[in-house]
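Appendix B, record 7
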Amino acid sequence: MTGKNIRYHRVLYRNIGKVVYLWMNLMDMKLKYILLPALFLIVLNSCVDTDDLGDKRAVRTVFVYMIASNLGDNLGGNIADMIAVATPENLNGGNLVVFYSKNKKEAELFEIKEGANGVVTRHHIRDYEDKSAISPQVMKEILSEVVGLYPADSYGMILSSHGSAWLPAGFRNMLRSFGEEDKKYMEIDELASALPDHFFDFLLFDACSMGSIECVYELRNKADYIISSPSEIMDVGFPYQKILPILFRQTPLMNQIADEFHDFYSNYKYPYGNISVVRSDELEALAGVTRTIISAAGGEEATSDFPSLFPDLQILTYYSAPTSLYDFDDVIRRLATEEQYSLFQTSLDNVVTEKRTTASTYIQGFGDIPVGVYSGLSVYPLQQELAELNDRYRQLDWYKAVYE
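Structure tokens (predicted):
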């Protein structure tokens, strides 16, 4: 099979998946006006060689899903930063589409692009009323609408709001997973259910603490790469003026995204910023290596007293009720033999392709904490005094892959 034919078949299989995804989700929506043209475009694009399409289809659509909560001013600043650099050249002929949920009652879908007057601004598509942005079904519907309106060779998604890794929504009335709306939240398995498999080139989390091994493993089938932080992200979020043009390159350079994030926060008034880039297709192998180590160390009991036994564990995220999340590598190295740890490090390096950290990180409740060990991912070690939380943990894909 020639290189040209390989590209053709990859596009064909991927676009057939888009047809199925659109069909399944649009059936439940009052979006008949986009169904036929959307499916026509996708099938048409699937049946011709990509080299013959010219400018008929965008290289990439990047969909930004924002849930404001109490971050409205900050998200507004992020949108302004996107507008500042979203020139046709920087978008590389792609589409930048934003769903902004102010609250459950009020949301808007708009595109950021250059207008007829040559000025880049936001172009209103439609308003929504009574659409809960933390509902998996609503996320499916909005994504389906965007895919139908903006067909492309590839897709990326930015998820911007509050975050707390895999920790279950509302646990002891203090925690949330992704998103916050009227003190209600979307849990990580609900988020996974809302996103189609093998669809995105990348997922980027502009939300605190989403760089946990439990989160990225739950989302392993959703995107080729997952960009996130295992720690708190300052309220200004990602430096979009620097990274947005990188995301629209035909092959985004993940090292440049990590560098720009690190450079920004190294020079910010609050110099705290951790980031990592995860390659999803290596996660299964990492789970297998981790499973061997944990099983040999005693399974669930291996970490039951970990925080008290190892008070020097590197904390990456802290929640006063009920737990801290620790550096993944720092936990595993205390469980593994020398030979096991060497295999683990090799597998981890295959997964975390880029990682950057500032000298310190900010952790609510602790303040400025030095970062001495940094793998790019956090982990929750099962702890015997947290039976309720452990029960929730056992429902995650990571637990099933590593402990069962």
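Remarks on this record: The two ends are 41 Å apart (CA to CA). The chain has three domains: 1-56, 59-279, 282-402.
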